[in-house]
Amino acid sequence: MNLDIIAQLVQILREAPELGAIEVRRGLFGAWSSVRVSRAGHSTNESGQHVVVAQAHAPASGAAPGAPLPGAAAAAPSHLVEIKSPMVGTFYSAPEPGADPYVKAGSRVATGQVVCIIEAMKIMNEIESEVAGVVRE
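Request: output the structure for the sequence above.
Response:
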């Protein structure tokens, strides 16, 4: 990866406080190169180049980050676990238009199984289940 690409990734991460990390992999015929740009404190287990960006101060707004929206649904019962997206973006229930959804009510999910895609800043982010169980809604 050249430094211009890495600089662009750092800039995207600085402008998008909802993103924790960006990873780009590219290659041909087994010769892969990758770079992962993440905020300070964001853990990684990946090999390859790793660039850490210091957490920028978010501009002050009327609502605290992560605060529930007015009129948001009440908390889930204690025996249920919500799968929350770590970012704001467009929700996709299937990998492509016309395809079956990743999960639906009644589906069994395993830990680490992809349950949806969130598109943020033209990047498709797979959201995985943190627990095994059955989808209720």
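Residues 79 and 133 are 11 Å apart (CA to CA).
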